[in-house]
């Protein structure tokens, strides 16, 4: 919500001017050089703008080792081939697409079910059907940011992935 409010021209990115104005609007008053340094910190790809993912990633709190480890366990469970990425072939061994309602009603094929499933974890800018460890960790980093308790997050992961 804060990002959308700061994005005055609604182009889904923040330039330095919007970022500076947004900070001021929220009562954060910094020297120009400090605003520029802060902007550079948010602008992970040095594109001159901050996109929504960069904004969220920068604001997320770091994850505990317990959270990182349970995410790694889930990734290893899905990565059946052990090649460091999750693909449709990996999913065939752990996810039964035939139980998906859209497969059952004939709307989607098994391939489509797997592709849509992978898209949840795949990088929004590069939906290539291959989920890397980084993309998987990034996805769960976002989930983690909304859960205060480590034990609850671990329980959620264990029950979701049957770990």
From TrEMBL:
InterPro entries, A to Z: Ca-bind (IPR051581), EF-hand-dom_pair (IPR011992), EF_Hand_1_Ca_BS (IPR018247), EF_hand_dom (IPR002048)
EF-hand domain sequence ranges: 1-29, 30-65, 66-101
GO MF annotation list: calcium ion binding
Protein name (record): EF-hand domain-containing protein
Keywords from the named record: Calcium, Metal-binding, Repeat
Pfam families in the cross-refs: EF-hand_7
Matching SMART domains: EFh (SM00054)
Superkingdom per UniProt: Eukaryota
Originating organism: Chiloscyllium punctatum
